[in-house]
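example protein:
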Amino acid sequence: MNENEKKSGDWKMIVGGIALIVVLFIGIKFVFWGLGQVIPKPLADLSQSVQSSQSVPSGGDADAPSFCVHCGKGLPESFEWGQFCPYCGKKVE
């Protein structure tokens, strides 16, 4: 009779272990979902997503550098790749 009790206890432990794993998994998912609801997204992430969704004008402004790669000084807004830097005189490519 001792063998029957041991066999019946084995399947109860297996089912209990599986149930414990499922409950812990659901609990962890719930905790992370709750943290996602409580903690707001940083403003930098929101502004980047807005900027990436806006269309860029076809005037070539997207390719224009803002600083010279040689001297590091700021370039005018009308500057395009392949022109010479107005400060150091080197070609910016």
In short: DSSP finds two helices and no strands in the chain. Confidence is low (pLDDT under 50) at residues 53-61.
